[in-house]
Amino acid sequence: MPARLLPLLALAAASAAAPAWACRFSTGGSALNFGRLDPADGAEVRASVSFTVSDCTSRDLGQLQVAADEQVLGAGSVQRRLQRAGSPAIAYALSRSLGDIVGRSRTLVVQAAIPAGAYSRARAGAYQDSITLCLTP
Predict the structure, then answer these.
(1) How high is the pLDDT of residue 91?
(2) Which fold has domain 21-136?
(3) Contact 111, 46 (CB under 8 A)
(4) Lower CB density within 10 Å: C or N end of the chain?
């Protein structure tokens, strides 16, 4: 009996590891670039990165869910911290917007906003952050 169970277990493991769907994913950049922050300025600062998801197999792009570093980006925003050596952390909000579905493609824009005054104690200089996205159509 154990000889018969082994092939079945191997098949179940292989099936579980194979993706149920696949998509093409292209990006307009690789980082959220906030540019040079100057604490004396204190104005709100925005950054964004756009992506295109296309040619998905067996899934509906209308149901696309997005998570950034394991935080689901839904209708609202999630709070993150931007850290630079020798400077206090800067809080910012991360959100997303989904474009229209055109053919078999959909555009996704990840937006970040540092509120006015949030970097008043930070060191002046260039700031950027990177995120890891997880897309679930």
Answers:
(1) 94
(2) Immunoglobulin-like (2.60.40)
(3) yes
(4) N
Q: Of 18-27, 38-47, 127-136, which range is least confident?
A: 18-27
> How far apart are the C-alpha atoms of 60 and 19, rounded to whole Å?
15
Q: Are 131 and 51 in contact (CB under 8 A)?
A: no
Quickly list DSSP for 96-124.
Answer: EEEEEEETTEEEEEEEEEEPTTTTTTSPS
Q: Is 0.70 surpassed by the pTM of this model? A: yes
- State the Cα–Cα distance between residues 100 and 62, nearest whole angstrom: 9
How do the domains of the chain map onto residue ranges? 21-136
Q: Would you call 103 exposed, middle or buried from its count of C-beta atoms within 10 A (0-12, 13-18, 19+)?
A: exposed
